[in-house]
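Appendix B. Extra example for self-study. Work through it before the problem class; the solution is given directly after the inputs so you can check yourself.
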Amino acid sequence: MTAAPERISPATAVEPAAVELINVTKLFGDAPAVDDLTLTIDENRFFALLGPSGCGKTTTLRMVGGFEEPTSGEIRLHGEPVVGLKPYKRPVNTVFQSYALFPHLSIFENVAFGLRRRGVEKGDIGRRVDDMLELVQLPGMSKRKPTQLSGGQRQRVALARALINHPRVLLLDEPLGALDLKLRKEMQIELKRIQNEVGITFVHVTHDQEEAMTMADTIAVMSHGRIRRLGSPTEIYDDPRSAFVAGFLGASNMLAGTVGGNDEVALADGTRLHVASGHGRRPGDALRIGVRPEKVGVFEPGTAGLPANVVEGTVTDASFIGVSTHYIIHSVLGADISAVVQNVGGSSFRPGDRVALGWNPEHSFVVDDD
Amino acid sequence: MTTEAARRPPGWARWIRAKLGRRAVPYLLLIPGGLWLLAFYVIPVAQLAGVSLQEPLQAGNPQAGYELTWRWANYSDAFSDFSGQFYRSFLYAGVATIAALLIAYPLAYAIAFRGGRYKNLLLVLVLMPFLTPFLLRTLAWKVILADSGWVVEGMQSIGLLPSNGRLLATGWAVIAGITYNFLAFMTLPLYVSLEKIDPSLIEAANDLYASPATAFRKVTLPLSMPGVVAGTLLTFIPAAGDYINAQLLGNPQQFMIGNVIDSRFLRVLDYPTAAALSFTLMLVILALIIPYVRAAGTEELVA
Amino acid sequence: MRRRVLPLYAALALAYLFLPVAVVILFSFNDNQGRFNFTWQGFTLKHWAGAFDVPAIFDSLLVSLRIAFFAALAATILGTLIALALVRYYFRGRSTTNLLLFLPMATPEVVLGSSLLAFFLTLRVATGFWTIVIAHIMFNISYVVVTVKARLTGFDRHLEEAAMDLYANEWQTFRKVTLPMIMPGVFAAFLLGFALSFDDFIITNFNSGATVTFPLYIWGAARVGVPPQVNVFGTAIFVITVSLMFVNLWAQRRRA
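Solution. Structure tokens for the complete assembly:
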């Protein structure tokens, strides 16, 4: 006797994603700031929109928040379409780049602003504001005014002011841009901690690739209004799939070549390099093979047991940076290759030395020759 | 407990927004003030233009009323009858404006560049005298420049004035009065413009071998030009139409076009001539400032 | 040596600026003989004691204050609305609006005053208190717009977006965020309008009918002799306004 077939009731159907953009385009005049963008952001993620100035990341964020309307396309928040809804009707909150704290109100009133607008009980407000200020580590600041606070403190107030409303999605528009380096790094860790603790979706816009990689679970790299690469930090770093993304995230060395058989790429001078499998190109296709400088080892020529990919050259520059030494090697192919070697003992080389560069095939990636 | 429903905008506002949409909002904001200006500036001035082309139904009898005969001769008559006052008005206003510029510029410069923490205080001090009524200030000058006052006697003793010379009832007194009374209008825009100049620009000029005088000529002065233009306009325009200084500090030989218009309108009741004179004054002023307006663009005007 | 020249000049210029004020104050204590008050004849306090002996003076002062209040209030409201429209929105007719606002400032007061008089005559409206108020509102609007606009353009637009992000609709945003923030500018515009109206002579002269404002009183009296009580009130006005200004400055310092 067979068991009754399992019925999937609507209630257990797949939950709608936190944010969905479907074929969204935004034109300013004739110029597309966002060009037919489709994106799904899952619940409870720290999601980063990364790209250079003018790539459309801020415009995308503003459309989700309701400060701009798309020229065409749909936007859904938890399955509900929101195009045409004013910001005060959307269940999202925003942390602005300039923090936008109300200078004429105290910190308490700033943080309580959203609660008051929604008619929360007076008694509750006090308690919730205090709890939130604790969360962002600013206890006892209620009575001060924004002008009396430092940049880092203001940033946390802006965060508190947004989070206290329990939005289902929090939008952050380059919130750390105005902070100095040390503070920025601290806040990056703070924000990640808070996101974990509070458990809501964060959508973070930034042009700083290090920041995105530190904080985000998923990164969308944008340029010219389109998404070029979507994935976890490791995925897109190790497998950028385009020269643009390879260049935007970290540095990379690119060499032009043609596809041979069996995961091999032939360079102009006949040197054969090995790449990891599954690059999906056909023999004869032109492409470029890339490798990150930190994956390139620098050795004496003729050393035994070198990795599979070897290119020879002469050192033209060697800079000691404390943690590592950065080499620039003029290779026999004519191109310059940079290598970063951790200073853990081992040989060091000087300009003029002949060296052999070697790296593992898994560390190679391919991009189209464009 | 307040609910969200209670906080929605009043019914009429929602109705407006629904019917007219967002586009209408700026126009709605403009309408009250705009209508006011239309009704009480544009229309009266247009009407004045009409009046300037009328002539009395009965010659010599202003009470009998007027008719619009497009008498352009009103303008030429007015101009020839009162050309002296016209020239004098622009002469006095021009000299006074230049004097005001010369006095105010170093003052504004001193406050902007040397004021330090006391900038605002100094600015307030500069504006304070203008809290006394205009007329009282002018009457005070009558006292200061009196024949037996120390200014006149001092000038007589140095020989700037002959021993029976006087300042009152001469053009100099009127010019002095005008210069003083509009000094605030000159100082304020100058200060605003000078204060915006980044001191490091001057340091850069010095670093590039410019002497202080050259740095001033090549950097500070050009950058302060918007202030100079604004201040000059704000001073010259009211000065040209002023007649209080002439009335109180001068005698009929110094009367300016403003005095004439005032008497034509309120005493002689010769409206067409008065209107023609007013318009001529306004048109000449506009002719002088149109080049400025073109150069600066309309956004700059009201900012 | 050169460093001293500029501050010295500034001091001299300030002295020049305050000279007439000093004269006004001084001559409120002048023991003048006869109707005119132009030569110093001796010190006395009797004018201060008898400040209200000439009722016409104080009456004219009250008239001026009332006119200034109404005119400044109305002009501030109208002008602020216009300033908001100009700064916040893009609309066709911006340049026309700017021009319309600029023209009254560029028109000599004689033209403004006389054209309004002709207008009222045509409409057979009797000139008096309210025509003065109407005229003052008219010329104040431009100045209000300039003042408020200056304050508005430095305003962070994101503040309003933040308010809307935090569930305030447009009206609430205006009331809770925009208005409080532009208040200082609006208030400054009100004060400016008040001062311009209070001190106005030429336009008022044309449109006053039988109403006498403080400047009109002085003008009328100038021919036959200005009573020293005028100096007394002039001094009082000056002292009061200066004190208010300093109190305001001091209050601002404390708040910062």
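Self-check: The mean pLDDT of chain B is 79. If your reasoning did not lead you there, revisit section 3.
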